[in-house]
């Protein structure tokens, strides 16, 4: 196998797998320090995942929530980026193997995030849509619009309505935000586009296995979310599990059956680790077990941060929540700790600073919790938009997203209803290789 | 075969195939008149083709030069849209056949535009890129960026440079504008993205078979275009034909050989007619012969407009140029003529009003000709931008394009350098079915 061609210099080589929130922060913390940084990602861009649902619902361009990695780090002297899929890690010789060659490391950081967890249900995996990548979001957008076009061709009422119906499984932020956005599409946009269809008969179902939506938030917020969703004509099912799906019929554990050609599965995520680690290094969600320095035990000089890491301690028996702030804080601290470690100084343990949570349901409808403060409604909605806008990478992206949001707000519109590449279901679809 | 389900009403049914510049104008001219209008297109959006080259060169989002057809016509009472591929026309029973069913018509208008003409060269067709659709533009963008990523992996100099090199065949507006945009990418953007590559060694070649660029413009403008391109380090080859291409080696008729993994063929277009018309109804460029009312002879109630139509008369022995204004003016007039014809009134012959031509090469570098007036340089560039901006469909698109242009102007940037879906060459690629 050929070697990935990066300069051999007399500095420790830090190899980072994954350009998500954690990996990016880590690279920033190592800017022009006494290390060589090599970042690998299967894409040439960073994805701002919290807004994927707006791409799926025609509110934003895919290009405005993605940012070229090379552009972010163009002024970094000690930085090298390679687009690659990591296929294996051999910690005994400190080398990784990828589709473009092998690479030795002094320190390896696994920041590969999470992927959709179907909990072994092959049927749902085959027919359900995901919402973790830009391409998946575009596929959801295309599928929905294609199904509306096909609904026009069907004179049989069940067949027609199953194409309009939408089931979202999982009442976390992604599920709630997607359901709300679909509710607004149904109320304001689709009736104009499809005057020949009775869009009022379109059903949107949000199905949650637990007793409340937005499990990470208080009951006040999650009750409010249910209230907002009902205003948008979303059917919310709590304590309900989806047990099977064949592409049309959604079966549940409460004998409720729904006909829907559109189903998005956002009911679980799992660690998206690279192959080559020992089996005993994982928790139940396939996250890599790490200590308070994000170090992987028994693997010399390997670290994991963010969604893919489970820092199981006395205070955090299940690890941290799989959210962007944890990844960013871990990336940030690990940069400092690596530099300390190289200099032989003592390192600092990770402590998560929870800055709060939020979710938006629709225009003037959001819930925000910061420490003990809780807001709902229009003010919360503005906080949500502000926080997401300033968190987006790049001024061009911020400007484009702002133009779109203003446009959508004043026109009750979602302008990007394009089927650029039709979604075609791969009949032989298996779990896609997502090692990175 | 099932019938496409549109209401049977007591009005003449006008079926239009193709939502390009001509088809759109025709629908607008028939707004809420005493006809039923059915528009078919293989996409659910209208494409603003003049800016495709900016999508290919990472300057604009694909979504801002495409506009959902249903949105444009949402207030049209007598209008129906269906996403369909037309597979055949049987004029004897006034019926068309599509992938979603058959449809009878009283008047059929073929407005299917043009497609890339490789003049029978199968090798170039197999390995050359096109630039007629949004998907093709995205593929060019992905291929170029993928090749730069791969250039980093190659230590052999010919292999590395062939991945950076770009050949554009055809010196019409598309070729000239694409070459200029690549020149600016080379000068301002790629060196920052790829500090490890010697981007100065990237070669951009524009190859034109005729004696001048921009054949439709005066020598003053085309000489200026050559001068501008040379300033941007584009190699311009006139009186030169590309004779073969195997994916790497570009052969020409002057014994000049170029190594380039990127080749865009913009050297020819041909009518993109639907199957089912008699063979004697076409000109040499496979355009449908029409009379001065855009009527197809021997085919009762069939019309063709725009690029796909060749109105061969004494004054226009080769038909009209294949440009948007011809299509728009023909669509406009045909709407009036159809209504006159239905009422038994006499129709008006088509006369093309040439409002001028223009091409942009780079920042402050454009050529514009209107009647006998000619401008070059910064003023011409502003005219070019203004005309394209106001011609774009939709205020959201105008705003997004303006933000991008301002961003690109002040930052010497092209921000959208994303490989969202990698381009994978289909080894078995044949001429794709482009009946619509």
Structural features:
homodimer, 436 residues, alpha/beta, FAD/NAD(P)-binding domain, 2 domains, 5-stranded parallel β-sheet, 4-stranded parallel β-sheet, 11 helices, 22% strand, disordered C terminus
Can you describe this structure?
Chain A contains 11 helices and 24 strands. With 436 residues, chain A is an alpha/beta fold. In chain A, a hairpin with a 2-residue loop joins β23 (365-370) and β24 (373-376). In chain A, α1 (21-29) runs parallel beside α9. Chain A is globular. Chains A and B meet through β5, α5 and α11 of A and β5, α5 and α11 of B.
Mean pLDDT of chain A: 94
Biggest sheet character of chain A: 5 strands, parallel
CATH class of the largest domain in chain A: Alpha Beta
Second rung of CATH, namely the architecture of the largest domain in chain A: 3-Layer(bba) Sandwich
Alpha carbon gyration radius of chain A: 22 Å
Number of strands of chain A: 24
Structural class per helix/strand content of chain A?
Answer: alpha/beta
Q: What percent of the residues of chain A sit in helical stretches (DSSP H or I)?
A: 25-40%
Query: Which pair of chains forms the biggest interface, and how many residues does each contribute?
Result: A-B, 50 and 50 residues
The shape of chain A, in one word, is: globular
In short:
The structure is a homodimer of 436-residue chains. Chain A is an alpha/beta fold.
